[in-house]
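FAQ
Q: What does a multi-component entry look like?
A: The components come first, one per line:
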Amino acid sequence: MSDHHEVEEQHHEPTYGTPIIVFLGLVAFTCITVASSSLNLTRSASVILAMVIATMKASLVLYFFMHLKYEKPYFKVFLFIAVLTLSVVFMWTFLDYPFRLYN
Amino acid sequence: MSDNEGAFFYVSETPHAEHVDREGDRLAMWLFLFTEILLFGALFLAYSVYRTQYIDDFEEAASHLNTTVGTVNTLILLLSSLTVVVSIVAIRKGNKMLAVAMMFITIVCGAAFLIIKSFEWKEKFAHGIQLSLKTTVDAGGASEILGNLPHGQQVFYGLYFVMTGLHALHVIVGMIIFAIVTVLIFKDVINKKDVVILENTGLYWHIVDLIWIFLFPLYYLIG
Amino acid sequence: MSNGATSHISYLDVDRKYKGPLSFLNWLWSIDHKRIGVMYLYTAFLFFLVAVGIGVCIKLEKMYPGQQYFDPDTYNRLFTTHSVIMIFLFIIPALPSIFGNFFLPLMIGAKDVSFPRINLLSYWVYLLGALIALSGLFFHIPEGHWIGGANTGWTFTPPYSTQEGAAAVSTTLLAAFILGWGTILTGINFIVTIHRMRAPGLTWFKLPLFVWASYATSWITVLATPVVGITLMLQVLERFMPIGWFDPAKGGDPILFQHMFWIYSHPAVYVMILPAMGAVTEIIAVFSQRTIFGYKAIAFSSIGIAAVGYFVWAHHMFLVGMSETAQFVFSFFTFLVAIPTAIKVFNWTATLYKGSIKLDPPMLFALAFIFNFSIGGLTGLFLGALSVDVHLHDTDFVVAHFHYTMFGGGGFGLFAAVHYWYPKMFGRMYNMLLAKISFWVLFIGFNTLYIPMFLLGLMGMPRRYHDYVSRPYFDDLQKLSSIGAMILATGVILMLFNWAFHTKRGKKVGDNPWNGKTLEWQTQTPPVLFNFDEIPIVTKGPYDYGDDHEGSDKK
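Then the predicted structure of the entire assembly, as tokens:
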């Protein structure tokens, strides 16, 4: 290996504090989502709430744990494209099922 | 071209001895993670389609899954994600031993997750809900019980076993890679200036965690 | 380093000291992107030849009404094997992998792809998948036959596919899964390479348009292949476990399989065609000696085709029992695909206008691509229209349509690319006259084969049928189509012979026989191990022919 390793750009100073705070946040979200499941919400409300919380947890993981915060913008654009593709697949599939006449 | 004299066949050199591109390495890992997202995404698609068709069966079957076990496993995976991040920070700060310790905790967390998962599966098997190979099914045996459940519950358990099983497979692969990474930290291949192997393994581990973040409410909470 | 004839040792000769019984490993172990590209070339065309042979068998069977050579079940296996080889082993991996591997790094002025070892791994994965796919032929052998295989068609549509020939179908599904990972690895490699390895000065809008096409293709493979991978695995599991995701008797929905299958397999159609379009773009510019008309329009239309491809998959499923809402939306978006495609065709024709056109073999194939692909694309609009599709669905019209796009488009584009880049790859030229003859034989054979199939489809000939009832016109069209198949096969053999024969015996060529302006022509022929003695610094566009017509991007 050569000395080109020095070229590695890392603009942020690594700290232990941020990951621990993020972790506590994730634990808190987990507690909230577990607690909310015993609230006797309606079907759709409980699904939406659970998915919203899961998405927030996922964003925390992506942004901080997976260092998306420190990557160049095009990494974020690419992730957006991937998630967008997946959501298109979901939305377009659900053009079919709820609208079937014989269901 | 002369440095593989004596070899039995020609081994081409790599032009990359001098080409180190860490951003490119991370980009490749992210692209690989996109394939993971879409791989599991397809399973989530199947889940959501069948959930809308068999909403009652799904809720009934989900209520038989143990929420406490699921919650504990969620926390274990979150903890292991934290230890990976801390390990990266420790390496970058030059604290090799802390990094190794964190790797160790990560692997232990993975093992704990798998052990808890296996007990959960075993409990389901004990109730006759299992995916045995067709060839080993004896008449009147365990999988008859699964076959007699309502259609929606059969589909639910089928998806449950495949999704958690595929996820567990990813956990096992992650643990193996982390074991290799620990050795590489010892050997200083992963060092203060070059953490990309650990970073990329971490990215993979986080995506495994991220998939669990969605699996958990869908199977254990919405019941 | 000098050995007289050329200034440097080419990538073909680097192993000249290692000629022994293990010399095939000089290739199989090479991480040089050029050698990997050439290996893909040989392997893919070997499979192509096999599948063409099977295709001729299919047409011979249909030459007359009644059974000729094969019983109905064997016929099913024949068309399944034909499609599996053509799609999974030939057209999907061939176009991106042969020329993407060989020329993408050359075109962007790089020494290699970003991850040469992973690149070799994708070839091995491809080889492994191919072997598993072929091994499927030795399962599910019916009484009195020596060879078996899946008989489900390449779409593996349940419930039929989960009921018959478990071992053969599962093996083929596993092979498709493995082959998928081969293309994913190649796709990741190309995206990173294009982002990170461009020569200094080579900005995004100075990239050759083949690179743009490869970039769009790679994104499709990364974002679509995993979906079909897991779907195929679900079907394999379903056979061996008491679960029925796609089995209505157990609560599953067979239509969901079709959704998940086509979510990949429709974008995969653009994996087959986009690199061919890219190659044709290069050829049109070089053989008209003109700056390409509407560079940005062509570049963005590649991305556009890739994007729209995700919105249209269910147009393969209009008659399976989807909701009418879905049918309407999918039909609408299908029409939108025509826009970026037409943009390309118009830009190619505009480039030809007032160009100094040379009708060398690559250009002939490229022009045939435009001709065939226009027919294929426009008949696609028939099939995308809901009411017309009810009549045409699952008829020979569909078969003719996708052969016009996949073979007349993708295949002819690939042939054009081989004729165009052959001298750069091997340092020698094929026989020009034979190339032109084989082109005309191919072109006439191709159209004789498939135009009658459009008519047969309109008259109601279902696809995948072993037999048909004798009727006036019907028999003649079938016979004409079969004769076309034989002409086409003759053309294929002539063309492949021309290539194979001249790799070592052809006339030597200079570095830039076609006067191309892209980077791959600016280095030695055949290229040296790391492509360039010095990494070039790019200051000019890829089609800098000194003209400055309206619409070019350099004003």
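Q: Is there any commentary attached?
A: Sometimes. For this entry: Confidence is low (pLDDT under 50) at residues 1-6, 550-555 of chain C.
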